[in-house]
Design goal:
With about 60 residues, the chain is an all-alpha fold. It has helices at about 1-10, 15-25, 30-35, 40-55.
Length: about 60
C-alpha cells in the first residue's frame, strides 16, 4: 500500500503513477489491503483524497502511518 502511495506521488513513470492513483481512489480491494497492513481504510482513504485535492504534490508519506 505504501508503495502505491509513493508511486502515485513520486513516480516519474506515467503509467505507474496512473495505475497507482486509480487503485488508491477506486480499488475494490483497497479496504482489505489497508486492513491487512494495519491501517484504518477510511482514514487512509481520506488522506489519499487530500493528496489528490492538493494535486498529488510530492510529500513525505510518513504522515500517513
Amino acid at each position: 500500500m505504501l508503495t502505491a502511495i509513493k508511486d502515485a506521488v513520486n513516480s516519474s513513470e506515467s503509467l505507474e503513477r496512473t495505475l497507482a492513483r486509480s487503485w488508491l481512489l477506486n480499488g475494490t480491494d483497497f479496504g482489505y489491503v489497508a486492513s491487512l497492513a494495519g491501517f484504518d481504510p477510511d482514514a487512509i482513504r481520506r488522506q489519499i483524497f487530500l493528496l489528490r485535492d492538493r494535486g498529488w504534490t510530492k510529500t513525505d508519506i510518513s504522515v500517513l502511518r
